[in-house]
Specification:
three-stranded mixed β-sheet; single chain; alpha+beta; about 90 residues; 2 domains; YefM-like fold; 5 helices
């Protein structure tokens, strides 16, 4: 996934192409006006992911739980398993 920058006028000319690219390649686009960022285009999937993340962060008890579990993992209190160990080459 990458982020590309276009001027607003260039984005207007390439709009349909950028919509297709954002959904197929999952690129994000930043549109600038006079060199300053003004807007962002991202795939609907990315947008939904951001909304889910915001919901989690707004739930204070869940956010606290996530931070607590992360600290346990980092300190070695919890045994972890690597992705490859669980899924092998199929994941």
């Amino acid at each position: 996934m990458s982020e590309k920058t276009y001027s607003v006028s260039e984005g207007r000319r390439k709009f349909l192409e950028l919509v297709r690219e954002s959904s197929e390649v999952f690129d994000r686009f930043v549109f600038t006006k006079k060199g300053k960022p003004e807007a962002v285009m991202l795939s609907y999937q990315d947008y939904q992911g951001l909304l889910e993340t915001l919901e989690i962060l707004e739930d204070q008890s869940l956010a606290t739980e996530i931070v607590s579990r992360k600290k346990e993992i980092e300190s070695g209190e919890v045994e972890t398993t690597e992705h490859e160990e669980v899924f092998g080459d199929n994941g």
